[in-house]
Amino acid sequence: xxxxxxxxxxxxxxxxxxxxxxxxxxxxxxxxxxxxxxxxxxxxxxxxxxxxxxxxxxxxxxxxxxxxxxxxxxxxxxxxxxxxxxxxxxxxxxxxxxxxxxxxxxxxxxxxxxxxxxxxxxxxxxxxxxxxxxxxxxxxxxxxxxxxxxxxxxxxxxxxxxxxxxxxxxxxxxxxxxxxxxxxxxxxxxxxxxxxxxxxxxxxxxxxxxxxxxxxxxxxxxxxxxxxxxxxxxxxxxxxxxxxxxxxxxxxxxxxxxxxxxxxxxxxxxxxxxxxxxxxxxxxxxxxxxxxxxxxxxxxxxxxxxxxxxxxxxxxxxxxxxxxxxxxxxxxxxxxxxxxxxxxxxxxxxxxxxxxxxxxxxxxxxxxxxxxxxxxxxxxxxxxxxxxxxxxxxxxxxxxxxxxxxxxxxxxxxxxxxxxxxxxxxxxxxxxxxxxxxxxxxxxxxxxxxxxxxxxxxxxxxxxxxxxxxxxxxxxxxxxxxxxxxxxxxxxxxxxxxxxxxxxxxxxxxxxxxxxxxxxxxxxxxxxxxxxxxxxxxxxxxxxxxxxxxxxxxxxxxxxxxxxxxxxxxxxxxxxxxxxxxxxxxxxxxxxxxxxxxxxxxxxxxxxxxxxxxxxxxxxxxxxxxxxxxxxxxxxxxxxxxxxxxxxxxxxxxxxxxxxxxxxxxxxxxxxxxxxxxxxxxxxxxxxxxxxxxxxxxxxxxxxxxxxxxx
Length: 711
Prior knowledge:
This protein starts with a strand and ends with a helix. Strands 5-6-7-4-8-9-11 form a 7-stranded mixed sheet, with helices on both faces. The chain has a 3-stranded antiparallel sheet with strand order 1-2-3, with no helix packed on it. A two-stranded antiparallel ribbon has the order 10-12. By secondary structure, it is an alpha/beta fold. β8, α3 (115-126) and β9 (132-137) form a beta-alpha-beta unit. α7 packs across α8 (223-232), α17 (438-444) packs parallel to α27 (669-679) and α18 (451-460) packs across α28 (682-710). The protein has 28 helices and 14 strands. The longest helix has 44 residues, at 318-361. Helix content is 61%, strand content 10%. The protein is elongated.
């Protein structure tokens, strides 16, 4: 990302697109997660937004335009972060843009319900730039909890403008724009306070700052912040400063500076915990200010939140309630997706017949029309019909829980289990995203700060099934496990069976995470700040738009991109052969002895292999192989599917092993490509392919062996 000056206007160019428009002023929008920053951004920019990746990074950004008093503002939504002292990707991006992106104004959004903790980021930002506006958001939530903030006194104590907002209230957002505009034109000149650390640290800062005079490229207001970074010896931050200002700190001899601080100024940076001293000073400042500006009254809403959390995050009820929510979402997704899936399937079948007739009428060679229509078209439409409805139901439900504030509670409930596996509790949130789509879950691993823990979360995300596997799981569970029930009882038992298999996948994820943490990815679990935001009324309109556009359409587009060539390959393998035996059958016959050890057969294993572009086509491939067809077989009647499977030797053991292998096998092509992009390595992509597959093979073999020995 770059912001370049040109006369009186600025031009912004995204790193991954040709998005380029002139603007009068550039505004950075930062803040902690869950403070309503994105809501403010969306309400200010409307549909004038663009999403992409920061240059050289995998963290997504959003930019947008808005106008005020005939001036055009470019708003850059910086990734949410609790601090800009560390080196997670979010913190690097936020810090580098505020410091080196030269925004005209930086707006730091804070949560009015927990101001003391939020001021930490404000103080850190004020060390980097003077043009700060503190946006105290969620005033309505604070009022419900009996919290009152004296905004004028807060502004006086911080030395920067403070604006109170309710993200959905246009009037308060206009006030925010007005103050921002006045800073841009110089009508308001912020004078942020400096945190006074203890005398020993202050002496060290003064001495180090005097040495920075040899670098005329560095603005003088950054001397204090850079001195802190040099004394703390943070290589990533120091490297960013050197690159952006084209300097080399080697000429300073930082080691000598530290020795001088130790011998002459009586502060040994190595012995004293420098960062802890700095953070403690900031915390004390925040506490002191909040004691003066914040008053509390009793509130029934705050009490209700605490009562809910006592239940939803309790050791006794927390996890059972989580599993109940999980089962409910799956059940709604499964039952609700049946009808639209059937309608789409019938519609695409009608179009397919028309296309075949049209191809015949214009004299298209049979092999060509079959390859294009029965191969590519049929595969694409099958994936759309089976994949789109569940995603269109699951993602809004998932986003609903996210907006409600329940997802952080899930992470809290399972944090202890992931800590025992030497990983981050945030992994549970990415795992929940994987239930909708493993590719989305892998992308969501960006929220994990530790590179080691992020990689473990990426490698194990596919241990939970995505929505592409649900229809197959439910079909098998309904036919072989819930067949003795009818109506609601059958769907309930089928859902329960699927939930049990999913819990097994979660357990395997924890086990493999612990094994990785003690072998090739050794390390101890890092600590992280987990904020439990207040329960909020979900915004249903935005939930639907965000879940459909940002998730469903995005994932479906990726799936279709790999499904088209896969449909061609499947058709070729099903129609090309020797001595009347297709290549598909040859592969199935070759794999059959190994598949038998797993309690499967060669056709099932072949279907899983050829279903790597998308899990949705595994069942159609199995049916096609059993019926001896040369194109995907679309059968929606469970009774007909049951007859075909049982006639080809399926038993309860086969069904159990198929369900196990459906949960534990290699990720789809879309997920593998996403893993390559996120990890930047084909080696780790191969490991992500291998881990669940080996686990699935071993588990199926063990199940088959035990069943044959004792039954």
